[in-house]
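Model it.
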Amino acid sequence: MAAQRKTSRYVVPIAVAGIAAATIGLVPALAASGDPDLPEITAQQLIEKIAASDTQTLSGTFKISTDLGLPAFDGLLGGLAGGGSGEGSADPSAQLTKLVSGTHTLKIAADGPERQKLTLLDGKEQYSLVHNGDEVWAYDSASNQVFHEKGAEEAGRAPEKELPASPKALADEVLKAAGDTTSITVGGTANVAGRDAYRLVIAPKQQGSTVEAVTIAVDAATGTPLKFTLDSTSGGKPVVDAGFTKVDFARPAASEFDFTVPKGAEVTEGDQLEKDHAGKAPEDLEKALGDFGLGGAGQNGPEVVGEGWTAIATFDTGEAAPKTEDAPKEARGFLDALGDEVSGKFGSGTVFKTKIVNVLMTDDGKVYVGAVTPQALVDAANAAH
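Modeled.
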């Protein structure tokens, strides 16, 4: 487990980079040049085109916008984790949290599975993450901090079984949802980052899901996903709108993945960071959330009610749900903004809402979680009583 946590520091950001690079683009880019006139293609043919894609090299610029419908939670994770490695740190696990809200511009370069580079631009400041062979380097210009870890090449490969670390893997994961509960169609064509693309639209057939549709813009020439959009039934801005604004499939120069420690920068080794945080960040955060009934499945493992897009995971924490005032002080305002009190045959409880995932915590300690409407969670709780 310790090795897995260590690996995740750089594997998760690089995986996100691969996902984003595979799927990212701007909404205006779709309309800028009009819809291209491409040969007709079936959904099955387009899926096969994605599966056959073997893009190993690319570079480009993309933007990712995320709107989960959450209140501001800047500093929340760091506060819960007892300080952790928040702002002013080059640790990838800290910097990654920036991508879960707002709009961000990134530059990416990739040369096969051994060399990737991601740069997160934030005004005059930037954060760079470089994976080159068996080394990972990260640099935060705002704090002049450097993160370094060796042994990345071998360690970084194992989690690929669990994480979608490439454009094709992301598309495959989405398409696994296909079945009797899913509609998959070709929704016309688009122009993304100056390239002709088909639009693959995946949508629930079931009522009660919070997902309106997932749309993937697929490069007509290479089969590489160029843009990924996740829309919620609640309307408004997409939950995730991620796509290339510029892309080039040529092999980046080898020098693109070189890293030199900037003058005066403080270097933190991954092994030292692991020691410094041992018994602190993950454990303290888990305890803080667990004390509020959010840390796990309690004494009983989760059960799944329903199927497909409307599946609901349910478990019993084994104890009465605590009140918001019992939560860590850093989380109280956040939870208050999320929660709505509900009642039914099951008794009473609180629904914590986002634009996609909703959670019902009953006062007697039952938890219901799913990408479904709050009413669907209430119905499931009523049916269980």
